[in-house]
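Good day; I would like, with your permission, to put a structural problem before you. A protein sequence and the structure tokens that stand for its backbone fold form the material at issue. I would ask you to consider whether the tokens describe a fold that such a sequence might reasonably adopt. I set the record out below, with my sincere thanks for your time.
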Amino acid sequence: MSRMMIISAAAAVIGLGAWFVTSPGSNDTAVTTVDPMGAANAQEAEIDTSGIVDMTMGNPDAPVTVIEYASFTCPHCANFHAGDYEKLKSGYIDTGKINFIYREVYFDRPGLWASMMARCAGTETAFFGMTDLIYEGQSTWARAGDMVAIVDELRRIGRLAGLGDDQMEACLQDADKARTLVAWYQENATEDGIESTPSFVINGTRYSNMAFDDMAAIIDEAAE
């Protein structure tokens, strides 16, 4: 297996459209398709991405900014969040030494749904709490089976985080938000030259996945 999951020139979530799972009534589940880019594939400039906010932690005035680009369906990203991320959080984020920004990458439709669910939580604190749960359960929800089963597992995670069913359905059915998130991801990935996940941009310089000690050395040097 390769060390990182490489982003294709046209991510599946853009090329194939997004599946949205809705509950129209009683206990039935319906599956419908929506193209997250719609007609804007040819006119990306028409999508206003200014309403999508970066999810941040740490000290916004810190001398070092670390941006993580990650996909909720990327196993390497889950491994990072289970290990080195905790070291980064305790040693650099919680201590205010860095400004940390998390940006989602969309390889596929489940990754987009997970992002929409995490952002459904509202506040940055709730978002990062959901992010932890999503990565912890990745091996379960991302391999649940068909698309309906995957979304049902994401709903289960949402309930654990305190989200209501109506709140989750509204978020999952928001096709405009999905299109805007995809356009936002494309803008960010193009600007920072992101080709794999996890990737990191530290004070404007892009790095591929690395050992924590190497990352810490780069951060410490940038802070001097």
